[in-house]
């Protein structure tokens, strides 16, 4: 959506009460978004004060994919580096002066697609900002060499080696034969093709833990994974690296326990920089609440829906929030596909937390909501649906209404940088 269209939507809805908005829509509580961003920054600053090693922060923008949200995550220069999950996110951020002026460094968080159209876009980004890419297989290196020639760019690719610390999604295990082969090739045959920026670990499986201690265990595993990788690399080179760790659950578990302090000291003694990364933390969702690290009231975004019918015999009602607006994401702590709260006109709350319903079944545009006690919401009632996974849910919407919780009125419209 262009800025012209954004301005048109904002002109139509700015100052409207949230219950007057069309549904389904995605709404962002700006105060909670800001508080979540600040809480993460303050947590990192507390560790920085220990002065055990150099530390930095690289927020991921993939949850909201917006210029405005990214600027808030960067926190007035606290960070000048970001993670992106699509080239469209990177292109949008560097082509908008508001965000481009605050970003020096962009990391694309998927191994590259080796086709010319994709690589030309990558090259264009690389011309404007420091670009970091992921590798996790020695067979990727010949392709990077070929495109170095095809793109007429002699500068080595700056790479993170992705370390698998248990998620089994992307990455390789430190100390594995594949890891040793890759490190040897980076330092040897392909030293003019790639320059190792550091090691990157993401504990994606931390989304399925159920308490603080389990999350803490995952945090330690992330740290150990990158520390061990750096120790192995030190046998080849004394280059100073960036060791990047994080996920929203593990970042919310940051603390200064003795085990953490010792790992930070090791990083400091090696002269490396510890980089923290996460993305969902600014919005949050039911999956994050399920980990025990955040509370339901911390969630900054929800889907606004409307009750369109009800069925007394089945003790169910129907909302216009189907799979295309909620997705089929689930969590370990909450049944169904979302938690429903009717909108409230209480000056202290914009939805009524005393009345809770579960989205039990979904069709394309139908959300079937179950009542546990037999009470049903009336037709035409507006309700907030808290999503299981904000990152996936928000991708369904062309724009987001941002509101002030004190006035309950729309103050802005954010347009996501959609596409790949």
What's the quick description here?
The protein has about 425 residues and is an alpha/beta fold. It has helices spanning about 5-15, 30-50, 65-75, 85-95, 95-100, 115-130, 140-150, 175-185, 210-235, 250, 260-270, 285-290, 325, 390-395, and strands at about 25-30, 55-60, 80-85, 105-110, 130-135, 155-165, 195-200, 240-245, 275-280, 300-310, 315-320, 340, 355-360, 365-370, 380-385, 400-405, 410-415.
Would you write up a description of this structure?
With 420 residues, the protein is α/β, with parallel strands linked by helices. It has 14 helices and 17 strands. The strands form 2 sheets. It has an 8-stranded parallel beta sheet. A 6-stranded antiparallel barrel has the order 10-11-14-13-12-15.
Main beta sheet strand tally, sense and closure: 8 strands, parallel
Q: What is the residue-mean pLDDT, rounded to a whole number? A: 95
Computed over alpha carbons, the radius of gyration is: 23 Å
Shape: globular
Helix content: 25-40%
Strand content: 15-25%
Which structural class do you get from the secondary structure elements? alpha/beta
Number of helices: 14
How many E strands? 17
Low-pLDDT stretches are none
| Biggest sheet: strand arrangement | 2-9-8-7-6-5-4-3
How far is the first residue's CA from the last residue's CA? 15 Å
What is the fold's blueprint, element by element?
Layout (H helix, E strand, L loop, with lengths): L2 H11 L11 E5 H19 L5 E6 L7 H8 L6 E4 L2 H8 L2 H4 L4 E4 L7 H13 L1 E6 L5 H10 L6 E7 L13 H11 L6 E8 L10 H22 L8 E4 L2 H4 L6 H13 L2 E6 L7 H5 L10 E11 L4 E4 L3 H4 L11 E5 L14 E6 L4 E4 L11 E6 L2 H5 L5 E5 L4 E6 L6
Parallel strand pairs: 1-16, 2-9, 3-4, 4-5, 5-6, 6-7, 7-8, 8-9
Antiparallel strand pairs: 1-10, 10-11, 10-15, 11-14, 12-13, 12-15, 13-14, 16-17
């Amino acid at each position: 959506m262009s800025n012209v269209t954004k301005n048109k939507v904002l002109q139509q809805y700015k100052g409207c009460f949230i219950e007057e908005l069309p549904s389904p829509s995605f709404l962002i509580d700006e105060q909670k978004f800001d508080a979540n961003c600040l809480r993460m920054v303050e947590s990192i600053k507390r560790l920085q004060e220990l002065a055990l090693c150099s530390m930095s922060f690289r927020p991921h923008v993939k949850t909201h994919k917006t210029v405005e949200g990214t600027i808030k995550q960067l926190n007035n220069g606290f960070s000048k580096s970001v993670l992106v999950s699509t080239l469209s996110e990177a292109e949008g951020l560097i082509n908008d002066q508001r965000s481009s002026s605050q970003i020096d460094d962009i990391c694309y968080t998927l191994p590259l697609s080796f086709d010319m159209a994709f690589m030309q876009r990558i090259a264009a980004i690389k011309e404007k900002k420091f670009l970091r890419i992921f590798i996790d297989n020695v067979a990727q290196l010949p392709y990077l060499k070929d495109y170095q020639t095809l793109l007429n760019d002699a500068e080595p690719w700056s790479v993170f080696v992705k370390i698998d610390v248990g998620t089994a999604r992307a990455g390789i295990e430190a100390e594995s034969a594949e890891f040793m082969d890759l490190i040897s090739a980076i330092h040897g045959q392909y030293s003019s093709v790639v320059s190792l920026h550091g090691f990157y670990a993401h504990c994606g499986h931390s989304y399925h833990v159920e308490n603080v201690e389990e999350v803490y265990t995952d945090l330690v595993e992330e740290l150990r994974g990158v520390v061990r990788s750096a120790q192995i690399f030190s046998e080849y080179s004394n280059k100073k690296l960036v060791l990047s760790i994080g996920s929203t659950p593990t970042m919310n578990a940051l603390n200064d326990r003795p085990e953490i302090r010792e790992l930070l000291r090791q990083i400091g003694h090696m002269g490396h920089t510890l980089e923290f990364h996460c993305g969902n933390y600014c919005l949050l969702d039911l999956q994050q609440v399920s980990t025990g690290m955040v509370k339901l009231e911390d969630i900054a975004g929800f889907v606004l829906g409307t009750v369109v019918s009800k069925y007394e015999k089945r003790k169910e009602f129907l909302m216009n929030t189907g799979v295309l607006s909620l997705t089929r994401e689930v969590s370990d702590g909450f049944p169904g596909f979302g938690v429903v709260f009717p909108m409230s006109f209480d000056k202290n709350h914009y939805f009524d937390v005393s009345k809770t319903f579960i989205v039990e079944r979904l069709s394309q545009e139908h959300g079937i909501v179950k009542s546990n006690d037999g009470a049903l919401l009336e037709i035409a009632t507006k309700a907030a649906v808290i999503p299981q996974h904000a990152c996936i849910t928000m991708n369904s919407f062309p724009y987001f209404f941002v509101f002030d919780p004190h006035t309950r009125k729309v103050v802005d419209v954010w347009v996501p940088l959609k596409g790949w």
